[in-house]
Amino acid sequence: MRFVTNSCLSFFSLLLLCFNLNGENSKPELNQTDSVFVSLNLQNKEILLDEIIVLENKSQKTKTTRSENIEVISSSFLEENIAGNISNTLEKIPGIQSANISPSMARPLIRGFGGYRIVIAKNGQKQEDQSWNNHQGVAINQSSIEEIEIIKGPASLYYGSDAIGGVINISTLSVPDSFGLSGVVGLKAETNNDLLGMNVKIGLREKLFFFNTDVSYQDFADFRVPADSFEYKPNHFAKLDKSMHNTAGKELSFNMQAGLANNGLISYLLFSYFDNKSGFFPYAAGQELVNAYWETHSVSNRDILLPNSQLKDTEVQYVLNKYFKNSKLSSAFGFQQNISKEYDILKDITGNRQDDILEYYDTNLDLGYNLKTISGRINYTYDSQESYSVVIGLNGQSQKNDISGYSHLIPEYKRSMVGLFSEFRYKINQKFAGQLGVRFDYGNISITESINPDPAIGDSILNPQIDNLYPAIVYAAGLICNPGKSFLAKLHIGKSYRMPAAYELASYGIHRHNLRFEKGSCNLNPEEAYQADFVFEYSHKKIQIALYPFLNYFTNYIYLAPTPEFSLWYFYRPDL
Predict the structure, then answer these.
(1) Residue 200: how many CA atoms within 13 Å on its side-chain side?
(2) How far is 362 from 509, CA to CA, in rounded Å?
(3) What pLDDT score was predicted for residue 316?
(4) What is the spatial distance between Cα 188 and Cα 89, in angstroms, rounded to a whole number?
(5) Contact predicate 309/101, CB 8 Å
(6) 336-361: per-residue pLDDT in tens?
(7) Is the pLDDT of residue 15 over 90?
């Protein structure tokens, strides 16, 4: 399979313990649907007033002030619809699907787009754990999520490259509502893979200071299936014993936030760590299980044997939001380190790599990636409070990927990009509003040349040296019609783009998840798309009708094209 480009058109928990040790008296809270009018008559004497917190319906306000097809998902929705991972949980939302990688890992899809064509962000910062290929799962634990903003359709104006199909922006660990110490302890269990998990959340707010922490751990066994065997190629049957051998795993997630909140200023430091280790179903890895292997995997349904993978994601992020009378300055700067390692029984197919076998013999490291990313963003918003608002933003990132292991799939590379955007929103009258924005982007990717360590198989050079520049201009415009609470209509049109990923430019090898040989194309042009999104919503009493048609026209689309040649790698693997 080889990457090419073309044009295309597409249409259309069980809660155990809760506690709240308040340092002050509890404050009354309002539901999102409540309306409150506060009248204060001050006389010439000192009056001490309790704190008043007014909560607005953020989801409804976002829908009626932005022309994109956008939804805001609260933590209560996640609690009521919780599934095995965040991608499966979001499947309850129209237009969102989930592609399962393993029983514990999955990646979300927005209207069929996934991988490189949607952005998974945390607190506004893009998560880079899917950079190596478009089959990685999302490494975010659900228990730390406070809110999710989902943009269906073009979102390159705010997020730049990779947001051509939409955005899932996850907010974690918000400022505690009440003063004092509070916490929650929960247990989680699932029967299909005997999953057992525990989650502990602790929050503290004292005067200006606040602190949050979330720790969760889960352990799961092999995934059960209603079959004793299956035919994985003609006349070759594999034993299952009503379970998919070697799909057990374990997962640890830790998030900590500490900061200050006072007088229109919110500043905090966020640290997160995610560790997942799980086995690969051996047949999916292209490895035939003879009886000896089957007996080994059948000893325990919780052991993690070869082949397996381990993900370790570490992130440090600093966020500063300052609120003025009619404006807001928000900024975030972060560092991410994403490590992925795949382990397998190593084989020297031709006998030419004895030194490499010896180097990785003790660890069985087949593929290893170490991606380090520095990113930042600054947004300034001015709101006249009457008829218009202006947003100006600057964001960028720089990343470096190192590789290790016996096999090869993608090379070492460096990637950087910077973008400047501005958006103008205008309230025409009480029923109509519009918005218009433009963005300038500049990207660069530098990929190291890779020499074939075993020239008896494949090309002598796996990929050449690549140094590509990708300048881009994108724009968007929208119109909102909101005559009353019962009806909402929106139109959003725009141009989006996407830089080719290093995997599409320079991959060379067997993709374990799909069991196929994939080869990149070093001369790919960026994807470009012209898109239109429509929103029609009507509600009256108990009746609610919603219609979301959309149009995508790609002038340049990157996709895998099957080739008639077979990889020589297969001729040296009679077990496949």
Answers:
(1) 6
(2) 23
(3) 96
(4) 15
(5) no
(6) 999 999 998 888 888 899 999 999 98
(7) no
In sequence order, the 6+-apart residues with CB closer than 8 A to the CB of 521 are 2, 3, 4, 504, 505
Task: List the chain domain ranges.
Answer: 2-571
- 78-84's contacts with Cβ under 8 Å and 24+ in sequence apart are 78/142, 78/145, 78/148, 79/13, 82/13, 82/142, 84/190, 84/195
Tell me the average pLDDT across 376-404: 93
Residues 14-27 as b/e (b if ≥16 CB within 10 A, e otherwise) read eeeeeeeeeeeeee
Q: Are 305 and 282 in contact (CB under 8 A)?
A: no
Q: Position of tokens 């990113």? A: 375
Give the sign of the dihedral formed by CA 558, CA 508, CA 370, CA 502: negative
- CA neighbor of 347 nearest in space, from 357, 336, 339, 338: 357
How many whole angstroms separate alpha carbon 143 and alpha carbon 185?
A: 11
Asked whether the predicted pLDDT for residue 330 surpasses 90, the reply is yes
Residues in CB range of 18: below 8 A, 6 or more apart: 182, 183, 184, 185
| Helix, coil or strand: residue 90 | helix
Query: In this structure, are residues 508 and 450 in contact, taking their beta carbons and an 8 Å threshold?
Result: yes
* Fold of domain 2-571: Maltoporin; Chain A (2.40.170)
Distance between CA 81 and CA 310 in Å, rounded?
Answer: 28
- Distance, CA of 551 to CA of 111 (rounded, Å): 11
CA distances from 60 to 65, 424, 434 (A): 9, 20, 17
**Cα–Cα nearest to 396, from 422, 414, 372, 420:** 420
Q: Which residues of 319-356 are buried (b: 16+ CB within 10 A; e: fewer)?
A: bbbeeeeeeeebbbebebebbbbbbbebeeeeeebeeb
Determine how β-strand 119-122 pairs with β-strand 166-172: parallel
CA 112/CA 528 separation, integer angstroms:
17
